[in-house]
Amino acid sequence: MFQKPLNLLFLSTSVGPLGSGLGGGVELTLRNMAQMMQQRGHEVTVVAPAGSVLPDSSLVEVFGDLHPTAQNEGRDAWIAMPPNSVLAGMWNYASQVQDNYDLILNFAYDWLPFYLTPTLATPVAHLVSMGSLTHAMDRIITQVAEQFPHAIAVHSRAQAETFPDSDRFWVVSNGFDLQQYNFCAEPENTLGWVGRLAPEKGLEDAVVAAQVTNIPLKIWGVLQDVAYWHDICDQYPDAPVSYEGFLPTAELQQALGQCRALLMTPKWVEAFGNVAIEALACGVPVIAYQRGGPAEIVQHGKTGWLVEPDSIQGLVDAIAQLDQIDRLTCRRYAEAEYSLQAMSDRVERWFAAILNQRMMG
Ligand code: HBI
Q1: Distance 284 CA to ligand 1 centre (A)
Q2: From the CA of 27, how far away is ligand 1's center (Å)?
Q3: Are the CB atoms for 116 and 144 separated by under 8 Å?
Q4: What is the model's pLDDT at position 226?
Q5: What number does the ligand 1 atom closest to the CA of 24 have?
């Protein structure tokens, strides 16, 4: 695929150090991508906010102010940069060392890395972690996609379609180290919900479904919006739900595997839905609103059920049909589509397209 191993520079998200959970799915994706590229013989160096933790990779920590999450900006938001932006620091470093690298891969959903792309000699690729959120980001992403045809990749076709002009985006799906996930054949009588506790994730719907079916619901994830969680608790005081905290992958997969199903109730177009793969890898069927990335992951009636978006009754009906889903089929499907190997093939093809494009000028 390549004449020689690549020297790759990964630039992380600006909203939190790696390992804090604040970076959401990007943290897992970055860690997995670093691992898979190293397994393929490439060199990976990761630049991330100070306080980051990343085993088995060379890490450059940069001090500075974290960025506000893009989810809370309105569509017409102006580009906001904190006074001592950690992202500016990270890209200042990247521009200084760029000659040592064949490719720079950006994981931040922020304006600056896209704006800087034409100013760097080393090719810059962007793995966009969310769907369209603001005009400013749509505009700068479109500009980069026009000037550098292969530069942009997303996780799902649904995510790509939220952007105004996405036919040149690469869809790389995602990949996980499935050896870290243990298949569980005999679950407890519990349902699972995993994600940042925030309004766009629609936790309240899963809570109501647990109340209606009277099946306990276990919740894992970063408690990002405390007021939102307290509102749910006040509104459904008798629902059989428990918040189990934010667990690192090893503990999460152990607990999640015990569930009869994972409920995915996104109110926004979930770019992908890493947790859906983590559940399938443990043999846990996924019941998901037919919206965004999860709708491309769940095979209706085979690895779970796709439900009419925002339909609590739909969730309840799907839960009643869980016994029709074979848990081993869920694990096998994750192995076929979402292993590190499957993802590495997709990512190497993406990188080759960028580097060939660059060589041909
Ligand atoms: N917001 N400004 C900004 N930059 C990011 O990189 C970013 C974000 N919000 C969420 C996020 N990244 C990650 O949690 C994604 O995995 C969703």
Answers
A1: 27
A2: 10
A3: no
A4: 97
A5: 14
pLDDT tens, position by position, 223-260: 999 999 999 999 999 999 999 999 988 999 999 999 99
- Among protein residues, the one whose CA lies closest to atom 4 of ligand 1: 109
Task: Classify domain 178-337 at the CATH topology level.
Answer: Rossmann fold (3.40.50)
- Asked whether residue 361 carries a pLDDT value surpassing 60, the answer given is no
| Residue range(s) in the chain whose domain bears CATH number 3.40.50.2000 | 7-175+339-360, 178-337
- Tell me how far apart the terminal alpha carbons of the chain are, to the nearest angstrom: 19
The total number of residues shown for the chain amounts to: 361
Backbone angles phi, psi at 261, to 5 degrees: -165, 155
Q: How far is the CA of 109 from the centre of ligand 1 (A)?
A: 5
**Distance of CA 4 from the midpoint of ligand 1 (Å):** 33
Digit-coded pLDDT (tens) for 9-43: 999 999 999 987 776 778 889 999 999 999 999 99
Distance 332 CA to ligand 1 centre (A): 30
Pocket of ligand 1 (CB under 6 A): 13-15, 23-26, 67, 69-71, 108-110, 129-130
Return the residue whose CA atom lies nearest to atom 5 of ligand 1: 109
Q: pLDDT tens digit string along 86-106?
A: 999 999 999 999 999 999 999
**Phi-psi category of 347—alpha, beta or left, where left has phi over 0 and alpha has psi -120 to 50?**
alpha
Cα–Cα distances in angstroms (integers) from residue 288 to residues 33, 141, 273, 285, 322, in the given order: 26, 29, 10, 10, 13
CA of 162 to the centre of ligand 1 (A): 16
Q: In CATH, what is the architecture of 7-175+339-360? A: 3-Layer(aba) Sandwich (3.40)
**From the alpha carbon of 29, which atom of ligand 1 is closest?**
16
Rounded distance, CA 199 to CA 354, Å? 37
Give which of 201, 4, 198 is closest to 102, Cα–Cα: 4
